[in-house]
Amino acid sequence: MSTSQTSQTSPSVSVADLTEIRVREPHRIAHAWANRRRRELVGPDGRLLIVAADHPARGSLGVRDDPVAMASRSDLLGRLATAVACPGVDGVLGTPDVLDDLLLLGVLEGKVVIGSMNRGGLQGSSFELDDRFTAYRARDIAAAGLDGGKMLTRIDLDDPGTVATLEASAAAVSELAEHGLMAMVEPFLSTRRDGRVTNLLDPESTIRSIHIASGLGATSAHTWLKLPVVDDLARVMDATTLPTLLLGGDPQGDPKDTYASWGRALDLPAVRGLVVGRALLYPPDGDVAAAVDIAAQLVHGGAR
After folding, report:
1. Which letter, b or e, does each residue of 153-185 get, where b requires 16 or more Cβ atoms within 10 Å of its Cβ?
2. In this structure, what are the phi and psi dihedrals at residue 19, rounded to the nearest 5 degrees?
3. How confident is the model over 231-276, as pLDDT tens digits?
4. What is the C-alpha separation between 220 and 116, in angstroms, rounded?
5. Which of 255, 227, 225, 228 is nearest to 242 (CA)?
């Protein structure tokens, strides 16, 4: 990673230095959070492009046909640094380990930072739908000067454990709102098929998940939704007035088709941007900057 991808406050920090800092100077992490330069949540156009990097903490390392594409932390950090440096990228969504690394590398200055809160439902596990809060708490997000918290909220009507997830998500929404911070709720109606958790991505299921998620917490004043791009999206988005960011999902098929679907979705009034991870960080041609530039143009104008 080049020093051009780090901030002026820590120009000598590289990926190779991170372990040494954690061993000898762990206090630098708290100091860096306290002194990080922040920005307004949204700019004049009211839109956001957020790069997501919270998949590994749920044991989800695969991209397309490579089940361990995200296994290398140094490679992931390099891709993230490239992506975040691109004009039009507003910030990053991640777990504490990834965000602390990016912070030390200096790439979070002047960026929106969203902490991923619940990663307990490990991919492929018997307890995958138990979306416990195992990472950030609302008070941690506020204390570190992050800009919000994101919670995965999968709803299985046949699983009694779903009510615990709903209760925890509602508490997080309320606690984040007390600090005036974004609560990014990512709801799905889900089920188990042949032992595997499947998210139901038809319009009716998505609409129902929106209504359930929108009612979580003591106030909706700071609640945003993170939703998949599904069929009949105009009707789906009519289910809410909450600002919504669309997720990129697991990249499949031709990226041009994906970009076209994002562009159409971004024309809807409630849709205020994208949260994309693997589709931008691991494009088929390997050109992270080019993929991010296309998404930035779609979100902030110039390509549509």
Report:
1. bbbbeebeebeebbebbbbbbbbbbebebbbbb
2. -65, -40
3. 999 999 999 999 999 997 666 667 788 888 899 999 999 999 999 9
4. 19
5. 225
pLDDT of residue 8: 36
Q: Give the pair of three-digit tokens for residue 92.
A: 């990053």
Token pair for 130: 């138990």
What is the chain's Cα-based Rg? 18
Strands (E), the chain: 48-53, 91-94, 112-116, 148-155, 182-193, 196-199, 223-228, 244-247, 271-276
pLDDT digits (tens, 9 = 90+) for 121-176: 999 899 999 999 999 999 999 999 999 999 999 999 999 999 999 999 999 999 99
List C-alpha distances in Å: 46 to 114, 272, 297, 299, 302.
17, 7, 14, 10, 15
104 CB-near residues (< 8 Å, 6+ apart): 10, 13, 17, 18, 21, 28, 29, 32
Q: What's the farthest any 2 CA atoms get from each other in the chain?
A: 54
Q: Is 302 left (phi over 0), alpha (psi -120 to 50) or beta?
A: left
At 150, give phi and psi (nearest 5°).
Answer: -115, 140
Q: Can you tell me the distance from the alpha carbon of 260 to that of 216, in angstroms, rounded to the nearest whole number? A: 32
Non-local (6+) Cβ contacts of 28 within 8 A are 21, 104
CA dist list (Å): 169 to 18, 94, 217, 248, 301: 32, 17, 8, 22, 33
Tens digit of pLDDT for each residue in 41-75?
A: 999 999 999 999 999 999 999 998 899 999 999 99
What value does the mean pLDDT take over residues 91-99? 97
Dist. CA 185–CA 216, nearest whole Å: 9
Rounded to whole angstroms, the Cα distance separating 169 from 162 reads 11
DSSP conformation letters of 196-264: EEEE--SHHHHHHHHHHHHT-SS--TTEEEEEE--SSHHHHHTT--S-EEEE--S--S-HHHHHHHHHH
